[in-house]
Amino acid sequence: MHNGVSSFNHFVHELSVDSDTSSSDYSSGEESDGVLPASPSSQSSRLSWASASANPESHWTEWITFILWWLIFPVRILIWIPQYFLRLFSKRSARAPSSPRRNLRSPRPRLSKTMSSKDHDVPNRATDRRRGVIEDLHLAIEICIEAIFDFFHRATRMILSPSEAFAIMSSWFSSRSNSSEESHDDVSDDVNVQTATLGDTDPSLTERPTRLYNSMNTDTRTCKDVITELGYPYEAIRVVTSDGYVLLLERLPRRDARKAVYLQHGILDSSMGWVSNGVVGSPAFAAYDQGYDVYLGNFRGLVSRDHVNKNISSKEYWRYSINEHGTEDIPAMIEKIHEIKTSELKLSQPTIDEEINQEEPYKLCAVCHSLGGAGILMYVITRKIKEKPHRLSRLILLSPAGFHEDSNLIFTIVEYIFLFVSPVLACIVPAFYIPTRFFRMLLNKLARDFHNYPALGGLVQTLMSYVVGGDSSNWVGVLGTPHYNMNDMPAVSFGVAKHLAQIKHTGKFKMFDYGSRTANMEVYGSPEPLDLGESYEFIDVPVDLVAGKKDKVIRPSMVRKHYKVMRDAGVDVSFNEFEYAHLDFTFSHREELLTYVMSRLLLVEVTPSQQRQSSQKGMKLKKKKKEA
């Protein structure tokens, strides 16, 4: 297909032009001679007419062509109808500013946009050329139409020219063996590409292996890719919990920093939420720029199901609730942070008994969103009950979960249905997730369609907002983030969903109820699960609660209930509200929120003893440099 015209249409047009020019040449005859020089097309038509007049058999060729043209005419009409609508879609997509064709025609603007990618949101990059389902169908229909036209074009040529058809078939048979041998030698998944990075100390080209396998045209970037693309350091830490789950703790390292921050995501989220807004609007980058050693925690519950036991069944893997988030995942990650910080600061690790009465060599704050807030509260309370250090200096909780009795009607209906069918559903559905790569890829491509077609995206946004009670979060934008890709995706276990339903049903922030007094006695030592709301007196660090006035998932009244219970328990707690929806705390660029969070983090200062230790370490380093 050239310039929007199929090869078959071009062929039929040439036939009609040849016949018209032939008839005009025959009628005008000598009158046109000497007036204008003949064009190549007219010369060829005259030669064809001369040969036709010399050979009477060419008249039969013209009749055959004429009959074939009228036989194919209904097919052309049927194919023209979808082609007409495809042109309408292509005209609309060609007007879009982020069209891939415009990027190819104007490389300079594309370069400037790429160089300034730090100032833009990661999901809406100018270099994002992913196709959605509609665009894939558009492309497939175009290829199909082109193949049909090409088939009729070649068939007509072979019918009209048997000698040419015989020559083509003979060339196919003669070159088949050679082409098959060359194809086996040329196929390779890994390609060595010479690359050079602007600003490198060594400007010479280096080779790196590049895998050319992403034929599905989906976004498979990870948190590491986003961080390193923006020029920040990255470190991945493998954490194993006591029950065998393998977690990914990601880090933006500042090894000499004595202040660190731990960021924990919420439900159906991952560490990508803390970096998805680019440099300007992401909490992780803002904290790193302020001199913090940044750690990004990831709960268990990804589709990849990473576990020490590689043969673990799906039912066994998904057998956990919010209890395991607060008593297994967070303790394992914070203990790993403590191990790393003490070793990097070259301090001997004291015993647990000494640590309870001794200040840490660093200050660690936690910023948690939604389910992460409930998990960190459970962690602090259970650690204090067990008389173990929690190693935290301050908690900043963004719309934390825990109290949910004030919610919309849809959540209430789902709660009653879920608790009613949970005994049967637990045996059938261990978790709520998309199981296959194909359907995850389909969701990823549909998310691109929601972005590329505003009417469709607006409809989906409205429907999802109604489902969650009118919350105005950018639900469509969240689906387009890279951590909802075909390789891996956050999920919700049946136990976590049931635990949330229990919390909403009882109106209390309690640990998981195993359903019988005997089972609860084995786990908690009491017939009833621990009521965390009544145990807020164990919280011995300052807590900052932040609510969203437009949040319909966790309403401000529920965050205010956290505040009242903590204040009555004697906790050093503050409360603030912003005009945000539930997902705006992580997935939207909110300058006011970032300023507030950083101001609360800066309230935690390094103690004088730690400052003296750091100054002594700096003096030692200076002496070593002078001696060297």
Describe this structure in words.
The chain crosses the membrane at residues 63-86, 409-434. With 628 residues, this protein is α/β, with parallel strands linked by helices. The protein is 53% helix and 10% strand. It contains 24 helices and twelve strands. Helix 3 packs antiparallel against helix 6 (133-160) and helix 16 packs across helix 17 (454-467). Residues 2-6, 19-54, 96-127, 183-201, 205-213, 351-357 and 608-625 have low confidence and may be disordered.
What attributes does this structure have?
628 residues; 10% strand; two-stranded antiparallel sheet; alpha/beta; transmembrane; 8-stranded mixed β-sheet; elongated; AB_hydrolase_fold; 24 helices; AB_hydrolase_lipase; single chain; transmembrane helix
